[in-house]
Design goal:
Distance between the termini: 129 Å
Largest sheet: 6 strands, mixed
Order of helices and strands: HEEHEEEHHEEEEEEH
Strand content: 15-25%
Structural class: alpha+beta
Radius of gyration: 44 Å
Number of helices: 5
Strand order of the largest sheet: 1-3-5-6-7-8
Shape: rod-shaped
Number of strands: 11
Length: 281
């Protein structure tokens, strides 16, 4: 987002050099650090193959210099997480507005802690609304899971209403934000949880194992089908052999019956030659 009017007009302003270092205090806890890195890592992962790969910048716990007066007053404002769209994706030590074509963050997320919650909800929110004009502002407490989001409407932050899943839509990300397993996570427009690179690797491994198991099962099934076909062939051969044996037996019985009949006829002829009535026997 570009805002240049916050630099006082009519003054001969001498801008400090752009190679300023961030001067932000360390994050409150390892939970806060892990949460910040999770947001940065997942967004870079999600946008790795998208055209936005070279036209956005995402920073964490990094000073945003928006006024030369900050150098004197040391009134530094470093969001825990911020996103700037339509800018060069390169390494930076900080975000210096006057060196970035007057661009301010498009989205800011503050990670609340006991020592920063009142500032994040009050003064910082006011600065992000009135000076940065950042379109979307979210805060999240990694310890008690408090989560809220605001969208700039008519110059004032208005609460973002959650969907039935309790997720808050971000127009700047074209993604949902929501709490999952104690972490602030991205969700796809359809509502599915965006996987981390590690989770994606685990899921890919699980799917590969399932595909391997399925291939093994299909191989076993093919082997069983081959064995069944061989058994059916053997059974057919046995049935053919049995049919041949039955045919041979029938032929033998026919031959035997013919032999018996012939013997009976010869015997009857002899008896008649001896003037013996065959019916007497």
């Amino acid at each position: 987002m570009t805002v240049t009017q916050n630099i006082e007009p009519g003054l001969d302003v001498i801008f400090p050099p752009s190679n300023l270092e961030s001067d932000e205090p360390p994050l409150e806890s390892s939970l806060h650090l892990q949460q910040m890195l999770l947001l940065i890592q997942c967004l870079n992962w999600w946008w790795r193959d998208i055209n936005k790969i070279n036209n956005y910048f995402v920073g964490g716990n990094m000073t945003v210099y928006y006024s030369p007066r900050q150098i004197k007053t040391k009134d530094f404002r470093g969001p825990d997480f911020f996103l700037v769209l339509d800018t060069e994706n390169r390494d930076r030590n900080n975000w210096v507005v006057w060196e970035e074509d007057g661009k301010y963050p498009n989205l800011i997320i503050e990670l609340l802690s006991p020592s920063t919650a009142s500032t994040d909800k009050g003064l910082k929110k006011q600065i992000y609304q009135d000076i940065f004009r950042t379109p979307e502002y979210f805060w999240f407490n990694p310890q008690n899971l408090e989560f809220a989001g605001f969208i700039l409407f008519g110059g004032t932050y208005q609460p973002i209403e959650p969907n039935p899943q309790g997720l808050l839509w971000s127009q700047q990300l074209n993604l949902y934000l929501g709490v999952h397993d104690g972490k602030l996570r991205y969700f796809l427009p359809e509502g599915q949880l965006m996987l981390t690179p590690e989770e994606y690797g685990v899921e890919a491994t699980r799917r590969a194992e399932q595909q391997t198991q399925l291939a093994e099962q299909q191989t076993q099934l093919a082997e069983q089908q081959t064995q069944l076909a061989e058994q059916q062939t053997q059974l057919a051969e046995q049935q053919t052999q049995l049919a041949e044996q039955q045919t041979q037996l029938a032929e033998q019985q026919t031959q035997l019956a013919e032999e018996v009949s012939q013997r009976a006829e010869r015997l009857a002829a002899k008896l008649r030659e001896l003037n013996i009535d065959p019916d007497i026997l």
